[in-house]
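Ticket #4471: structure export looks truncated?
Reporter: QA, pipeline team
Priority: medium

Steps to reproduce: submit the single chain below to the structure queue and open the exported record.
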Amino acid sequence: MTTPTPLKVCVIGLGSMGFGMAASLLRGGFSVTGFDVNPDTMSSLAEKGGQTAASPAEAADNADVVLCVVVNATQTESVLFGPQGAAATAAKGAVLMSCATMSPDAAHDFAARAAALDLGYLDAPISGGAVRAAAGDLTVMASGSPTAFLRARPVLDCIAAKVYELGPDAGTGAAFKIVNQLLAGVHIAAACEAITFAKAMNLDIARVYEVITASAGNSWMFENRVPHILEGDYAPKSAVDIFTKDLGIVSDIGRGLKFPTPIASMALQMFVMTAAAGMGRDDDASVARMIATLAGLDLPGLPAKDA
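Actual output as written to the record:
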């Protein structure tokens, strides 16, 4: 009995999420070729046994599954359908799997363009963060045809602990993800406000973290992001600019539906203020730095105030 040839997978976008997904696929025995504009991440992929390429088109040459793990819909369109896009070179019947957070309308459009090229498309945004990406434990919120799911199933099983099949229509996965991002953005903003509020009351914020994470006020974002604040480490695991984009999509959808999103809108303004203060590319826990600066508070990692 012959052993099936492993699927050839292309990963476009080797940031914290995409690189972890590529590493998981390599551990799973897949043939992986990656592309990123950052040469350092390309070198890191090569060190792990992956192949690298000079363009999305080259990376996707004869690939069975193309994972697109870029920032937004504009980048997704460019790397899939642009002049050096992956859609032109992927194998016949390949599946394009788009993981960026975007509007449902954009996902629907990309699926139609893929179908016109006889390619499958999975609207497959992801959640879980860099640690879970590296462990192959992501959550995938996907929608697309049964055929596309079947073709991509080995890849999905390798990168994710949970894969939610949300129906045949592209755009459904994007809609589910934007609900998640509404909550995530609000929870980050609330966590940053809470911990700086504690600082304003001269509490030991490390002790506050210990108590709140064992109490009803805890959230996943409080538990995950407040350690960045305690350590004064704002190297971007997830950047402020991500939430100015994602909560902006929430706002746009709400306006189109004539549906009010007042809490999300306030959180959006907190991220916009943080970006305006020059921290857009820093970790999204930098909202705490923005609040602390406005309030004249000392936090780890902030410049010392003049005596």
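Status: closed, not a bug. The export was complete when the record was re-opened. Leaving a note from the reviewer for reference: The first strand starts at residue 8 and ends at 12.
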